[in-house]
Amino acid sequence: MIGKDRAPCEKDRHQMPYIEAVLLESMRCHCAGPILLPRATTHDITFQNYFIPKDTFILVNMWSAMKDEEQWPEPEKFRPERFIDENNRLININHPAMMPFSVGKRACTGEQIAKVQLFLILVSLFQKFEFHFANGWTPKDLRGQPGFTLRPPICQYQASVR
Question: Any binding-site annotation on 31?
Answer without folding.
Answer: no
